[in-house]
């Protein structure tokens, strides 16, 4: 079941005009911002399918940048996000892609600053609901509607067990979990959706485990 | 947990509860929140819907200038008293239009199930309330009943114009609204399902072809007719009329029709009304040049 809550259907409260192309885009931008952990200095946003054809009409561009600025779907500042980004000297570039993707509403965001870069792809599946389908080349499935922890790790036995043991110790319940790797024995990514926001100390404990490369989180 | 309309109706009938109650209980199970919290959350949505209608009835204009002001025209027309269809029907249409005019003007709305189709559910709710005099609780219940049917469509078909065309957006919204009107008017859960089936059957095949890619033309008027469709189908179901094709099969048909719809007719602004000479002309006028070269 893709939709679990009645508020996926009646909601979100949002700035018009399109739940998929405006609210969904804002959410993709905001999850990207959340995962990056800070305001980026630049972002290159590629639109595919229906996004590429109609983004100007739907305000997809202002919405996704609004999300990168950490604005929620109902934040009136979304309308001015391009101006606000310019004032903050964030360099924004849009690309209309011709390539055909699995989902018609797909956006890819490359973003970064002097400290690092991140690449993320998201789809807007309708009614404002989204899924993040790719992060730094890893395939994943993340709704952005629940708190989550993303753990980049070396693909070694026992690593997943170690991480889940830490969560168990802190009485954190796992709602959904996904593991993805680019190549056997190389880098892998664990995506763990949980029921409550995770405290910093838990993240530090996970970071200290063997074979863990990087830990980030999404707060609700 | 219900997965389709048949299960939803069965649950409501066996427990002797309203569909809204089944939806609230499922939400409590899924989220772990209390019934009180869930009702309050929905009340916020109701508030936003009320404010949007109010704003639209004062008259708004979209940035492109393509839409706005029609809700006002219709209200003035109703006041003159010479209408042919029906006062409640036209009031629903006007309020659906009001909501979508606000949406097109980048105002604040509540997606039901999407922004492009956000007018139908509140439009019908705020019209039928004049006849049925619901309590505030009952208005909130109206949204849960709409939500229950939308939930089934979203999980078994689609509520995205890009994936399934306008039938998935305004079609879904109209089906959801008709089911909720039936419940508010005292109909049975089975009659709600019949109303949704009748409504959705008449929305099948509706394409998503927004002029210039804007959620304005024909979206605003499609919300108008979605509301009208919902009102008439609700009356038909309350009269005891049933759909020969069961509701879940209508939803299944909608899903398959959406899948076989060419991408030009799924929110890409490449076909249908968007590709008419006037549609292209408006597009060129708004953006300075045609967006679609082909």
UniProtKB/TrEMBL annotation, chain A:
The lineage of its organism: Bacteria, Bacillati, Bacillota, Bacilli, Bacillales. SUPFAM superfamilies: ACT-like (SSF55021), Serine metabolism enzymes domain (SSF143548). Transmembrane segments: none annotated. InterPro entries: ACT-like_dom_sf, ACT_dom, ASB_dom_sf, Fe-S_L-Ser, Fe-S_L-Ser_bsu, Ser_deHydtase_bsu. PROSITE patterns: ACT. Gene3D superfamilies: 3.30.70.260, D-3-phosphoglycerate dehydrogenase, domain 3 (3.30.1330.90). Belongs to the iron-sulfur dependent L-serine dehydratase family. Residues 148-220 form the ACT domain. It comes from Peribacillus cavernae. It comes from the Bacteria. It catalyses: L-serine = pyruvate + NH4(+). GO terms for biological process: gluconeogenesis. One of its GO terms (molecular function) is metal ion binding. Its cofactor is [4Fe-4S] cluster. This is L-serine deaminase. Pathway: Carbohydrate biosynthesis; gluconeogenesis. Keywords: 4Fe-4S, Gluconeogenesis, Iron, Iron-sulfur, Lyase, Metal-binding. The keyword Iron applies. The keyword Iron applies.
From TrEMBL, chain B:
One of its GO terms (biological process) is gluconeogenesis. Its EC number is 4.3.1.17. Signal peptide: none annotated. The keyword 4Fe-4S applies. It is an enzyme of class 4 (lyase). It catalyses: L-serine = pyruvate + NH4(+). Its cofactor is [4Fe-4S] cluster. Pathway: Carbohydrate biosynthesis; gluconeogenesis. Keywords: 4Fe-4S, Gluconeogenesis, Iron, Iron-sulfur, Lyase, Metal-binding. One of its GO terms (molecular function) is L-serine ammonia-lyase activity. It comes from the Bacteria. Residues 15-274 form the Serine dehydratase-like alpha subunit domain. Belongs to the iron-sulfur dependent L-serine dehydratase family. This is L-serine dehydratase.
